[in-house]
Write a structure and sequence with these properties.
The structure is a single chain. The chain is mainly α and 62 residues long. It has one domain. Helix content is 66%, strand content 0%. The chain has 3 helices and no strands. The protein is elongated and about 40 Å long. It starts with 14 loop residues before the first helix and ends with a helix.
Length: 62
């Protein structure tokens, strides 16, 4: 079994992933300001519902 390090990522969203999604949904890439807005929105969205996400994860684990 692989040893998980304290600083290992559990989930990762790269700028390339965001840009690919933008190209598919908008037909273009995002500029710097739009990427910054995206980062803030992703953080807000993920942190707003993180309790529900963790509850769901741990319910599935046990």
């Amino acid at each position: 079994m692989e040893t998980i390090q304290k600083d290992d990522l559990v989930f990762y969203i790269s700028k390339d992933m965001v840009q690919e999604e933008a190209r598919q949904r908008l037909g273009r890439s995002l500029n710097f300001d739009e990427i910054e807005t995206c980062k803030k929105s992703l953080e807000w969205g993920l942190m707003t519902g993180i309790d529900i996400v963790f509850q769901t994860i741990f319910t599935e684990v046990i």
